[in-house]
Amino acid sequence: NAGVMQNPRHLVRRRGQEARLRCSPMKGHSHVYWYRQLPEEGLKFMVYLQKENIIDESGMPKERFSAEFPKEGPSILRIQQVVRGDSAAYFCASSPDTTRQGGNTIYFGEGSWLTVV
Amino acid sequence: GENVEQHPSTLSVQEGDSAVIKCTYSDSASNYFPWYKQELGKGPQLIIDIRSNVGEKKDQRIAVTLNKTAKHFSLHITETQPEDSAVYFCAASKKGTGFQKLVFGTGTRLLVSP
Questions:
Q1: How far apart are CA A91 and CA A46, in angstroms?
Q2: If you placed Cys at B104, which of A42, B29, B38, B96 could pair as Cys (CB 3.0 to 4.6 Å)?
């Protein structure tokens, strides 16, 4: 039973390039979350998605950041025109249908470490 | 919105001692409180969680207590071992219309010395 799978694990981008981070939720999970962790800080919520829908993106920067969770395939977090301040660990998490028992339980992937040079 | 405070930021104990990490939350509607352990270079791993209809939960050497009136919850680790060394995060959320947005504390770096 594979966990939340993220790739790439490490990504280096030059300023101005685009970064694409991918996340496959745990089997049977229909809810995906993205969190960002700056060095020596806690995790900050970015966006919550269900299949083909963005439910809450209140933690996403208004510009350059976007997320999707298509009907087929992984969830994608896209950062356009990266800047040095985007350097962070980006964690994807997933949870099962929240109307069922255990719906609150959120499981995290191993993260994607983005370094902007 | 919800705000979670966590103390202490660092905690050093000797192997075999107990460790206690405390968190407070601000939103009385929060009803779910997980604890995560994060090792260097890895993702947060859920170690225990508690829901608001329960005051205490235990799993082997780990226990969590919740005081809804005071809006605080604590993680207790007994008989600590060097492999317990990691950063621990508390979090809070409330179950609304299917949305579970975790608000995290700032983390506690636990160091267990042999």
A1: 10
A2: A42
> What are the helix and strand counts (H, E) for chain B?
0, 11
pLDDT digits (tens, 9 = 90+) for B3-19: 999 999 999 999 999 99
- Among the partner-chain residues A4, A106, A109, the one whose CB lies closest to the CB of B102 is A106
How many residues are there in chain A?
117
The answer to whether A48 contacts B32, with C-beta atoms less than 8 Å apart, is no
Widest distance between CA atoms in chain A: 44
- Using CA atoms, how far apart are residues B51 and B34, in angstroms rounded to an integer? 8
pLDDT, tens digit (0-9, with 9 covering 90-100), for B44-84: 999 999 988 889 999 999 999 999 999 999 999 999 999 99
CB atoms within 10 A of CB A64: 15
Instruction: Grade residue A101 by pLDDT with cuts at 50, 70 and 90.
Output: low
Q: Would you list the DSSP string of B1-45?
A: ---EEEE-SEEEEETT--EEEEEEES-TT--EEEEEEE-TTS--E
- Rounded-to-integer distance, Cα A35 and Cα A58, Å: 12
Residue showing tokens 């994608």? A76
Tokens of B84: 């317990």
Taken in order B109, B110, B113, B114, is the CA torsion positive or negative? Answer: negative
Closest approach of A97 to chain B, Cα-based (Å) = 8
- How close, in Å, is residue A109 to chain B by CA atoms? 6
